[in-house]
Amino acid sequence: MTEECVFCKIVENKLPSTKVYENSDFVVIKDINPVAPIHYLVLPKRHIPSVLKIDQEFPSNALFETIKRVAQKEGFSERGFRIVINTGPDALQSVNHLHVHIIAGRKLGWPPG
């Protein structure tokens, strides 16, 4: 955890958020600036700056299991959803803590905007 990271503060319950799901490795919250009716962020509890810093101890299987459970629990798994990981400034990664966007609740276009 880093003291200046907003997502670390959310994981540690030092900042408010609307939690959707939590397990031993991840916290899933509602995005405060949603681009669709359903827009969640999957946050690893361990601070990882980006996908480029994932190591062998990162629980990759648990990440996808978490996404699957949230989609089923929230009832949008049948209609479909998009997962997005922004990495670096050109991809508009706004917080240097790995996070996965889950976007659903409407028909999504391409390219994403």
Keywords:
single chain, about 110 residues, alpha+beta, HIT family, subunit A, 2 helices, 5 strands, about 20% helix, globular
Order of helices and strands: HEEEHEE
Sheet with most strands: 5 strands, antiparallel
CATH class: Alpha Beta
How helix-rich are the residues, as a percent range? 10-25%
Q: What's this entry about, in short?
A:
This protein is α+β, with helices and mostly antiparallel strands and 113 residues long. 19% of the residues lie in helices and 21% in strands.
Description:
Residues 6-113 form the HIT domain. It comes from Candidatus Marsarchaeota G1 archaeon OSP_D. There is one protein chain. A five-stranded antiparallel β-sheet has the order 1-2-3-5-4, covered by helices on one side. 19% of the residues lie in helices and 21% in strands. The chain is globular and about 35 Å long. The mean pLDDT is 94. Strand 2 (26-30) and strand 3 (38-44) form a beta hairpin. It is of the alpha+beta class and 113 residues long. It has one domain: HIT family, subunit A, CATH 3.30.428.10. It contains two helices and five strands; from the N terminus they run αβββαββ.
